[in-house]
Amino acid sequence: MATHSPQSEASINTHYRTCSLCEAMCGVEIKTQGQKIISIKGDKDDPFSRGHICPKATALQDLHEDPDRLRAPIERTATGWHEISWEEALSKTAAALKKVQKTHGRDAVGAYLGNPNVHNMGSMLFGKYLLQTLRTKNKFSATSVDQLPHHIVAYQMFGHQLMLPVPDIDRTDHFMIIGGNPIASNGSIMSVPDIRNRLKDIQKRSGKVIVIDPRRSETAELANEHHFIRPGTDALLMLAMINTVFAEKLCAPGKIKSFTDNLYALQQISAPYSAEKVAPLTGIPAESTRALVRDFCHAKAAVCYGRMGCSVQQFGTLTQYLIMVFNMLTGRLDSAGGMMFTHPAADILPQSGKGHIGKIKSRVRGLAGFGGELPSAVLAEEILTPGEGQIKAMLIAAGNPVLSTPNGAQLDKAFSQLDFMVAVDFYRNESNRHANIILPPVGPLERDHYDIVFHTLAVRNTAKYSTPLFVPEASAKHDWQIFLELAHRLKSKPTIKQILSHKAMMALGPQSILDLLLRTGPYGGKWNLLKGLSLKKLKDNPHGIDLGPLRESLPKGLYTRDKKINMALDFFSADIARLNTTFFASTSEKTEPGTLLLIGRRHVRSNNSWLHNSHRLVKGKSRCTVMMHPQDAEARGIVNEQMVRVTSRVGAVEIAAEITDEIMPGVISIPHGWGHNRQGTGWKIAEQHAGVSVNDLTDELFIDELSGNAALNGVPVTLVPISAKANNAAAMRTKKGTKKVQTA
Question: Which of 335, 342, 166 shows the shortest CA–CA distance to 257?
Fold first, then answer.
C-alpha cells in the first residue's frame, strides 16, 4: 500500500502579493504546498505590473528558506556568537544605549538606516518612534548616497521633500534619460514595472527613447539614441540645453508661468554656457546638444529624467535642479506625458516633515544636514575623531554601510572601535559583524506589505495590500515591534500615558495606521470614513486596485506657502559659480595623466548586498568586473579578464578587467554592493562570490557640496595590470571567494 508524506497530502494554495525587493512593485503569484514554496510567477491580473517580474522575485524564496538567515537574537562574546532570548537581547541593548548616552551625551549614539527600511511598511510607520526616543542628531541613511538631491530640489521648489514628480512614461512620446538605467533598476524615483515593454511602447507610437550616459547600458541598447557623456559634467550639458531653449526661442512653459516667479532667470545665468563652450568637457558635440533640445521641444509629449548618475556626483543637486527647470521651461511639468505628481491612496506627505536644511551640522567637517539627517560621508569621522559629541555607539537597521557608503574601509575601522553596536537585520554582514547584538526581524514573506513610499513615486496610481504568506514563529518579532520595544525600554521612567500609548501601538500595529491613511486619503470616504477606499477593500482585491493615470496637481498641490513654485535662485545659482570655477577657472585642478574616472553600475539581478546570498541571483559568470574601453586597456597593456589594480586616494582593489566598447574612453565602471571578503560575516553564498567593494575606492571627501550627498561617480583613479604571478594568485582568490580581509 502506497504511503504519502504530509507534504504530498497538503493542498496547493495560491497567494498574491507585491515583491518588496526593489521599487518596481511587481505583483507576484506564489504557489505553496504546506510550508513549501512551489513557484513564483508574475501576477497577470496585477493592474500595475501586468504579469511582469524580474529575476529578483525568485529571491523571495531564497531569503525565506536561507539557512544563513538569523531567526533569533545573537550576541557576540569572547567565544563567538551565541543565541539569546528576546528579553535578554532587548534589555541588554537598551541598557547599553542608555549607558553610552548618560556617559557621553545623547549624540554619542548614532543611527544608520539602510534602503530595505523603505520597502517595509512597519519600519516606515514605526521606526521614527525609536529615533525620536534616542534624540540624537547623528542620524544617517542610504538617502545621502543616493537620492538626496531629488529631495532638496523638491523641498526648495515645491515646498516638500517628498513632492517628487515622476515621468508619465505611459503617455510620453519622447523620453530623455540622463544617468539612469531603468531596465536594470526597474526605475528609481520612478516606480515602474515592465519597463522594457513600456519603453518599447513609446517607440511603437513613433516616439523616441534617448539615453545620455558614460556607459552604453542595457537601457541605452534599447534606445533610439545613446550619447556618451563625461562623468560629472551633466550640469554643464543642462546649462547648454537651457541656453539653447532660450537662444532658439523654444521656451514654452505653459500654465506654470502663472505661478512661478523668476521662471526666466536662467536665461541670463545660462547665457555663458553655449553648446560649443561645454562640448569639449561633456564630450557631446555642440550640434548634438542642440538637436537633443529641438527634438525634445518639438515632441508632442516629452520628459527629461535624471537619476543615479546625475545624483551621486559632485554637482548632483545642481544637475537635478537644472533638469527640473528644463522640463518647466519646455512645458513638461504637470503635463500629460511629462513630469507629473502622483495621487497615492495612502498619502504620507501631509503627515511627513516638509524638510529643512542646516538645522543640524556635522561636528567634524561642519556639513549641513537635511531633514534631520547628516550626510553618510561624515559617519566614519564622527566615530574616529575624539571630542564632545563623538559617536560611541551605533544602531544599524537593515543596512550595510561598509559596502554602500564612501571609503568603506575607513568606516569598517571606525565600527571596530565603537563601545557598542546593535543591528536590526536578519543577516550578519560586513557592517554588523562588529555588533554586540543583532536583532533579526521576520522575513519578507512573513509580514504584510504595502508600499507606503513607492506608491508615491509610481508612474500610475494604484493600491495593493499583501497579507503574510507564512505565519512567523511565535517567538519572532517584526521590525516595528523591535523598534517600539526598544523605544519603550529606553525611557527611564515612562509615564502612564507613555505606557498606555506603547501598549496601544503594539496591539494595533501598522495595519491600523494604513487603514486610516487610506480612509482619509484622496480615494477615501472624505467626510464619511466608512465609505471609499479602506484596508478591507484592498484585502478583498488581492491583485490590487487601479486608480487611474497620473493627473494634474498644480498649483493646488504645492506645499509652498504662496502656492507658487520657488526658483530658489539664492540656493542654486551659487553652485553655478562653483561649477564654473571647477571647469573653467585658470586655478581649476587639472587631471593627472593616466587618470581614469570611476562610475558604478547596476544589474537587474542585484539590488543590495542581501541579494548576493541568493544562489539564483549570483549564479553564472562573475558580474563584479571593471569595465574599461579597449583604448584604455591597450595603453596599459591589459587583456580581457586580466587582473588589475585600481587605486584611488583612499584605497585599492584587485579585480578582473572586462574590456568593452560599451564604456567611453577615460572611464571605468565597477558594480555596487560587492566585497564579501571580510572576516566574521555569516553568509556562505555571498562569500563564495565575494567580488570587491567599489566603496573601498570612493572618497568620503569627494561630495556634492550643495547637499553633502556622496559623489560616487567621477572618482579619479589609476589602473595598472598586476604582474603575471600575482595575477594568477589574485584570479584564484576572486574565483573561489576565499580570501578574507580583517580591517583593524
Answer: 335
Within 10 A of 10 (CB to CB), how many other CB atoms are there? 14
Q: Which CATH class is domain 93-146+371-464+472-541?
A: alpha beta
> Which region holds residue 295: left if phi is over 0, alpha if psi is between -120 and 50, else beta?
alpha
CB 346 within 8 A of CB 455: yes
Looking at domain 165-340+565-571, which CATH architecture does it have? 3-Layer(aba) Sandwich (3.40)
Q: Which residues contact 354 (CB under 8 A, 6 or more apart)?
A: 155, 159, 160, 161, 559
Query: Which residues, 6 or more positions from 31, have their beta carbon under 8 angstroms from its beta carbon?
Result: 12, 13, 14, 15, 37, 38, 39
By the 8 A CB rule, do 671 and 604 touch?
no
User: Are the CB atoms for 469 and 446 separated by under 8 Å?
Assistant: yes
pLDDT at 592 (0 to 100): 80
Around 499, how many Cα atoms within 13 Å sit in the side-chain half-sphere? 5
Sign of the C-alpha dihedral computed for residues 583, 588, 593 and 596 taken in this order? negative
CA–CA distance, 357 with 372 (Å, rounded to integer):
8
Nine cell digits for residue 339: 513630469
47: exposed, middle or buried (C-beta count within 10 Å: 0-12, 13-18, 19+)? middle
Residue 418 and residue 411 in contact, taking contact as beta carbons nearer than 8 Å: no
Residue 401 confidence (pLDDT): 97
Tell me what pLDDT residue 186 has.
85
| DSSP per position, 503-554 | HHHHHHHHHHHHHHHHHHSTTB-TT-TTSB--HHHHHT-TT-EE--S----T
Q: What is the 3-state secondary structure (H, E, C) of 98-123?
A: HHHHHHHCHHHEEEEECHHHHHCHHH
Residues of the chain with pLDDT under 70: 1-9, 587-590, 724-744
Structural contact between residues 30 and 469, judged by C-beta atoms closer than 8 angstroms: yes
Q: Is the peptide bond before 555 cis (omega within 30 degrees of 0)?
A: yes
For the chain, the structural domain boundaries read 93-146+371-464+472-541, 165-340+565-571, 595-736
pTM: 0.95
Residue 606: its pLDDT value, please?
Answer: 77
pLDDT of residue 744: 33
User: 73: which 3 cell numbers?
Assistant: 537574537
| CATH annotation of 595-736 | 2.40.40.20
